[in-house]
Amino acid sequence: MGKIKMKTKLTTVLLTACLALSLSACSTMKGANIKYKSQRTIDDTHPRATLIIGTSDLVDNILITNVKVAKVGLLSRAGIDVQNLTDNRYTLEYKFVWRDKQGFEIDASNVWHRFVLTPRKIKSFQSVGKKQEAYSIQFTVRFPDDLYIESDRLDREAKPFFD
Q1: What does pLDDT average to over the chain?
Q2: CB-count burial class (<10 Å; 0-12, 13-18, 19+) for 105
Q3: Are 71 and 89 within 8 A, CB to CB?
Q4: Residue 138 and residue 113: Cα distance in Å, rounded?
């Protein structure tokens, strides 16, 4: 009778351990919303950087790579490459946001920087955190969200009034 109880307990312990391992294996995506991770618009695999492709049309067309974050004296510096994987020319914009170790924004500049990415080329970007608390970065690339660009395009497509 003692051997049967021992086998039952051992089986229960093993089943519990297997269940716990299988449940923990289901949540391999950390940090970002799973929907956006599956669309590959957010990459938070680097321990000190979150990389965001802000326009889903750019997925598979550009690559954000070669992330480096290091200390320079008392401040942190980050470097990132953006590569065009296509034969298209893109006018894009990027933004660095610095965060502290707890993940809070510390350099809340809302300035987007425009750049041109020619076919098959790599463009490098750098930023220095303005405060000693700067620890990690969020780097976003997107198509420009500019009312003037959109209105200029619409003007060109519109037919002239006096023809």
Answers
A1: 79
A2: exposed
A3: no
A4: 14
How many angstroms separate the CA atoms of 6 and 1, rounded?
Answer: 9
For the CA atoms of 107, 40, 46, 85, the dihedral, rounded to the nearest 10 degrees, stands at -90
| Long-range contacts, 43-49 (Cβ 8 Å, 24+) | 47/136, 48/78, 48/135, 48/136, 48/137, 49/78, 49/80, 49/136, 49/137, 49/138, 49/139
Domains and CATH numbers, the chain: 34-143 (2.60.40.3230)
Structure tokens at 17: 């351990």
Question: pTM for this structure?
Answer: 0.68
